[in-house]
Amino acid sequence: MPICELPTNSTATAPPLRWHVPYRAALFETDRDELPRRIADAKRAIIARAQELFASSADNIEEDQLLEDALYALSALQNCPVV
User: What residue spans define the domains of the chain?
Assistant: First the structure.
């Protein structure tokens, strides 16, 4: 039986960010009918934040990596076979 492993970044020290709320809601959703909406909401929030970072001139490498990891985790969750 395949096991979906979602990446975690235990060394991340970023403060709580707006996209974390829908992201965590998707990760911990237990209702299979609700999961696609949660994933879509989280992806929208992450992409919106990525666009904000792209428009800024600050160095955002750490948060960029967190966003990339989060999108990867959501894709893994979305493609995880239902058992």
Answer: 20-79
**Cα separation of 82 and 31, whole Å?**
12
Reading the chain (83 residues) residue by residue, the pLDDT tens digits are 344 544 444 444 444 579 999 999 999 999 999 999 999 999 999 999 999 999 988 888 999 999 999 999 999 999 987 66
Please tell me the distance from the alpha carbon of residue 35 to that of residue 14, in angstroms, as a whole number.
Answer: 26
- Mention every residue, 6+ apart, whose C-beta is less than 8 A from residue 18: 45, 49
Distance (Å, whole) CA 57 – CA 26:
30
How far, in Å, CA of 80 to CA of 56, rounded? 34
